[in-house]
Fold this protein.
Amino acid sequence: MTDTSMTYIQFLLDERRRLDTDRDLTTLLHSVATACKAISNTLKNGALADVLGSLESENVQGETQKKLDVIANDIFLQRCEFSGVLAAMVSEEMDHIYDIPSRFPKGRYVLLFDPLDGSSNIDVNVSVGSIFSILRLPEVPDTNSYDAVLRPGVEQVAAGYALYGPSTMLVLTTGNGVNGFTLDGNIGEFRLTHHNITIPEDAAEFSINASRAQWWEPPVQRYVEECVAGANGPRGKYFNMRWVASMVAEVHRILLRGGVFLYPIDEKNRDAGGKLRLFYEANPMAYLIEQAGGAASTGRERIMEIAPQSPHQRVPVALGSRHEIARLERYHQEYDAQSS
Ligand code: AHM
Ligand code: MG
């Protein structure tokens, strides 16, 4: 059994001593965890606290904002701007880059986050999460513009998510493997419960929103059809299918028991570039998955190598067990070669 006596902050301090990581990063990761605890607490009371439902407003992506999207965003801003180590923040829920108010010191880090992912699940009391990605700029910038933060995922120095499910968990990588922490409500601290998470190379479970099948590209159709064909099909085995419509829950399941998660580009979302956002959904999840021994791709390139063009850019996402992602990439290559 894992030694669960270590708290998250002890883990961060231990990592800092062992690996000589930057003190400012520890401070920031602590602030992020505090934000996640506060969001977890807000979610717990649901309808009792009158926090469910939608607002009149839309975010920059044209999506109707839930009350909790905005509350969770404010919690992230409040908890993290105080840290004194941030140059700026970028959020799914904010049109513009967030400058750190002048009353706080500034640092070299940039926090990119989706404060409440899977928010269509809020009103039906199904798992949601927060996703974060952290970049370190070469120096403290004088002014902030998106240009300074348009950096590829390979430059992330940390990433993770909080899953607000039956228990609240925080899963983190700082580039030294992936560790999971469970919120201990008795002491209000995350405690290490899932040490050094690794993904099985093979899988027999896939996740995709199958209602979009008619719009998928042929390589995605081929992959899914072969999974569905089961033991008598080309794969020679049965596959299981799951779709929570909450990327955090999906990625968490894959980290713990393998599988693949796909949100491909299709005819309907092609103009937007896909559904999921590169900065605060695809990149941090790709970093976690790779650190756990899996792979993350658009089907045609490694997600973390994409040179970002804009902060709210969307990309196709395929991530999970290494051999399955390699197969899907091969199907894309074969299809592209055939059609060119
Ligand atoms: P959100 O950030 O607006 O909540 O959107 C992202 C979510 C992911 O968590 C999930 O994988 C996907 O959207 C679900 O999409 P769909 O509604 O097409 O099933
Ligand atoms: Mg999201």
Observations:
- The two ends are 54 Å apart (CA to CA).
- The CA atoms of residues 45 and 283 lie 31 Å apart.
- Residues 92, 114, 117, 281 surround magnesium ion (ligand 2) (CB under 6 Å).
